[in-house]
Amino acid sequence: MQFVEEIVVDEFLPTVRSMLAAELRERGLTQSEVADVLGISQSAVSKYAHGDVTVNDRIAGDERIETLVAELADGLAAGDVTPVRALIEIEILIRELETGGDLLAQLHEEGVPELADHGSSFRVHDPESDLRTSERVLSSLRRGLRILENASGFTALIPAVGSNLVACTPDAEDVDDVAGVPGRIFDVKGKATVPADPEFGVSEHVATILLAARRHDADVSAAVNIAYSPTLLDRLTEMGHTTAEFDESDDVVSSVGAAVDEVPEATVLYQTGGMGIEPLIYVLGTDAESVADDVRTLL
């Protein structure tokens, strides 16, 4: 198994650094100055200068890379371009070369020919592909879950029905577009326990709250439910959140929509319970990690 990022690290970066080091030396910079500009050691510059680093000829021969390296070398040598600016320019080019059919994508597909089995409609290198979008959501969700698992005292915020941290794709329309924890997060002997890896389509309740808020133009993509208390609401307000109450005993989707319409800036929704309904707080945010961080700050 090889990721396109490995090609960037193992082949693209050594090649571009070697090219930049050579260009900067040609422009009169000393080995020490080249090391400072590129943020590498002098011994590394020496290896580049003596050809001790393997260069990918296809990468080195790409006209776009040659042009960018020459332009950056001119700017870095003259002091018109900062190393940070050079980094940004290279990062932009990397993203372009990773798109389907371009240089890094070609190198990846040659290294992993099985990718062709997914058919022409599958573009693993397209940053907007469904697969990459879903994986980004799941990756963020996993990081958020680790934050909650390691947060001392989080179990005190887990309601009787359990908590769930969820996150959705940018164009989410239904619960199948929302990832969450199968079976929810529970307090098991004083430890927050995530029973399984996050999946799409496994959270009915918290996903419904998130989707309902989004349908009324709330700029949120993740949510978590925690136990209700006025003290927690006050803490969330102090942290900069805006709260809005809704009635879960009624139609949840309509009630959440009405609450968001009334308080468009709301990032915390809550209900105070009723017959057979546990009072809950829902913390919403732009991604799973930021939501988990907010919850950790409550502790």
TrEMBL record:
<dbReference type="InterPro" id="IPR036409">
    <property type="entry name" value="Aldolase_II/adducin_N_sf"/>
</dbReference>
<dbReference type="Pfam" id="PF10120">
    <property type="entry name" value="ThiN"/>
</dbReference>
<protein>
    <submittedName>
        <fullName>Helix-turn-helix domain-containing protein</fullName>
    </submittedName>
</protein>
<dbReference type="InterPro" id="IPR010982">
    <property type="entry name" value="Lambda_DNA-bd_dom_sf"/>
</dbReference>
<dbReference type="Pfam" id="PF01381">
    <property type="entry name" value="HTH_3"/>
</dbReference>
<dbReference type="GO" id="GO:0003677">
    <property type="term" value="F:DNA binding"/>
</dbReference>
<dbReference type="InterPro" id="IPR001387">
    <property type="entry name" value="Cro/C1-type_HTH"/>
</dbReference>
<feature type="domain" description="HTH cro/C1-type">
    <location>
        <begin position="20"/>
        <end position="48"/>
    </location>
</feature>
<dbReference type="InterPro" id="IPR019293">
    <property type="entry name" value="ThiN"/>
</dbReference>
